[in-house]
Amino acid sequence: MAQETTKDQWRDPAHVQEFFSVRARDWDARFPDDGPAYDAAVADLGLRRGDVVLDAGCGTGRALPALRAAVGPRGVVLGADLTPAMLEAAVRAGRQGAGRLLLADVTRLPLRDGSVDAVFAAGLVSHLADLVEGLSELARVVRPGGRLALFHPVGRAALAARHGRQVTPDDERAEPNLRPLLVRGGWHLDSYTDEDTRFLALATRSDRPARNGAVLG
Q1: Does the keyword field hold Transferase (predicted)?
Q2: Residue 1: is its pLDDT beyond 60?
């Protein structure tokens, strides 16, 4: 069995890129039935026509078509990912037409303060070395009152079982842990769903500046 990536390893961007680079080509084929769950999560984000939306850690861009459909032709869809091979897979799948792809670390986004209406983040939480830092950076680029969706197409217990482990009390995605982390990152948790068929935490950007949110030039 392959050794599971540790939290400390996620602190190294080179390791993250290596991990996903070797999986990018067949990533979509490994999870062929996730499409409806992505579509439903995008719908729950409550996007409006003309919105600017960021898919943070977009991977192969599976959410981009649904995001484009939600914001319409006048909206802006951005997909940011750290791994070139995942973005290349998005292009091979024809998803670059749904949004602009950015090679970027989501903890240091090349976007202006308050320039985004909403963020969709699938599977991102477990790939951030410092969750508050990542949430703060997402809050920085989102306007006050903007929305965040932290999503995974299966729930915590189902995902843990897939990896041959159990859910632990210190899991950052558990509601009692996630709620204060979101507050520290500049967000208010509005709703929380953790069931076998999906994980979805919806939050609203606070009016106050996010803690630890760096301002990029």
Answers
A1: yes
A2: no
What are the pLDDT digits (tens) for 139-166? 999 999 999 999 999 888 878 777 778 8
Taking only the tens place, the pLDDT of each residue in 43-66 is 999 999 999 999 999 999 999 999
Closest alpha carbon to 105 in 38, 20, 25: 20
CA separation, residue 160 to residues 133, 156, 173, 174 (Å): 24, 6, 12, 13
| Residue 85 main-chain phi, psi, to 5 deg | -65, -35
Grouping H, G, I as helix, E, B as strand and the rest as coil, residue 35 is: helix
Instruction: Using the structure block, give the residue that is written with the tokens 């409550």.
Output: 46
Query: Quick one: how many helices (H) and strands (E) in the chain?
Result: 8, 7
pLDDT of 7 over the 60 cut:
no
Backbone angles phi, psi at 98, to 5 degrees: -90, -20
pTM of the full predicted structure?
A: 0.88
* Measured CA angle at 151 (ends 150, 157), to 5 deg: 115
Report CA-CA distances (Å) from 33 to 7, 38, 111, 154: 28, 10, 32, 11
Nearest to 65 by CA among 28, 27, 93, 104: 93
Which among 76, 201, 62, 195 has a CA at the least distance from the CA of 131? 201
The 3-state DSSP class for residue 126 equals helix
Kind and range of the H or E run holding 157 = helix 156-162
> Residue 81: exposed, middle, or buried by beta-carbon count in 10 A (0-12, 13-18, 19+)?
buried
The alpha carbon dihedral of 207, 208, 212, 214 has a sign of positive
